[in-house]
Amino acid sequence: MNGDYCNNDGARDLKRRIETYWIDKGYDVQVQLIEGTFMAAMRSARTDVRSDMVNGMPQRRAA
Fold first, then answer.
1. Other Cβ atoms closer than 10 A to 26
2. pLDDT tens, residue by residue, 3-59
3. Nearest to 19 by CA among 41, 63, 52, 45
4. Smallest Cα–Cα separation from 15: which of 5, 24, 28?
5. How many whole angstroms separate alpha carbon 41 and alpha carbon 5?
6. C-alpha dihedral over 9, 48, 46, 15, to 10 degrees?
7. What pLDDT shows up at residue 52?
8. What are phi and psi of 23, to 5 degrees?
9. Whole-prediction pTM
10. Which positions ≥6 away from 54 have C-beta within 8 Å?
11. Is-contact 48 33, C-beta < 8 A?
């Protein structure tokens, strides 16, 4: 994996990759992008990627 997954474009790409991976395996995973505030340490705003997975594993099979 290359790139910055904390900015908008990278977070959208990561969301798409996570959803596609689990759909291909027959699972339904919900991934949300949460816009963060400006972080002085990062010198930019960030976008968080959150999902309904527990310990990195999906909780339900796709219908």
1. 9
2. 777 788 889 999 999 999 999 999 999 999 998 777 777 677 788 899 999 999 999
3. 52
4. 5
5. 16
6. -10
7. 95
8. -60, -45
9. 0.79
10. none
11. yes
